[in-house]
């Protein structure tokens, strides 16, 4: 894969219609090109750089993307299936029509990012950073969002009832909580942030 990417970088061409399977790369720079209609299967990219990269119609399946850098990127119609992205960086990134299924993106950073029509199912995003992000049409089912940083991120209209939100971080004025959808137990947990004890 690396030789293909280097050649495409030199030619300033996109990676299109390719399948990368069982690749193992550490600390490589895979940025400078876009990926269109590409599938990554059982790949391990550790500490690799995808800075300012666009992904369109891309599938990551059974991949390890831990500590990879996707900052200032663009994701459209992308799937992460049974993937690991612990500590991955998505700051200032746009994600549209993206699906995370059975994946672990704990400690990942989506600060200042825009997420629209993003679905997350049976996944762990614990201790992730979603500070000052824009979240629209987000669907959450069985997601761990414990200790997530939602500082200055409006949560209006997002249904958290099937997810875990203990220990989230918000601003001192609690403005982020306005309009979010929670169950009775979660409401009691959030009330403690306001200094209210529900019995």
What does this structure look like?
The structure is a single chain. This protein has one domain: Pectate Lyase C-like. Helix content is 10%, strand content 30%. The protein has helices spanning 2-11, 184-193, and strands spanning 15-16, 19-21, 24-26, 35-36, 39-41, 44-46, 54-61, 74-81, 94-101, 114-124, 134-136, 139-144. Strands 1, 2, 4, 5, 7, 8, 9, 10, 11 and 12 form a 10-stranded parallel sheet that branches. Strands 3-6 form a two-stranded parallel sheet. The relative contact order is 0.09. The mean pLDDT is 94.
What is the CA-CA span between the terminal residues? Answer: 58 Å
Helix-strand makeup class: mainly beta
CATH-defined superfamily? E3 ubiquitin-protein ligase SopA
Number of helices: 2
The global form is elongated
Regions with pLDDT < 50 over 5+ consecutive residues?
A: none
**Beta strands, count:** 12
- Highest-level CATH class: Mainly Beta
Question: How confident overall, as mean pLDDT?
Answer: 94
Write the layout of secondary structure elements.
Layout: H1 2-11, E1 15-16, E2 19-21, E3 24-26, E4 35-36, E5 39-41, E6 44-46, E7 54-61, E8 74-81, E9 94-101, E10 114-124, E11 134-136, E12 139-144, H2 184-193
Parallel strand pairs: 1-4, 2-5, 3-6, 4-7, 5-7, 7-8, 8-9, 9-10, 10-11, 10-12
Concise description?
Helices cover 10% and strands 30% of the residues. The chain is mainly beta and 199 residues long. The mean pLDDT is 94.
Keywords:
single chain, 199 residues, mainly beta, Pectate Lyase C-like, ten-stranded parallel beta sheet, two-stranded parallel ribbon, 2 helices
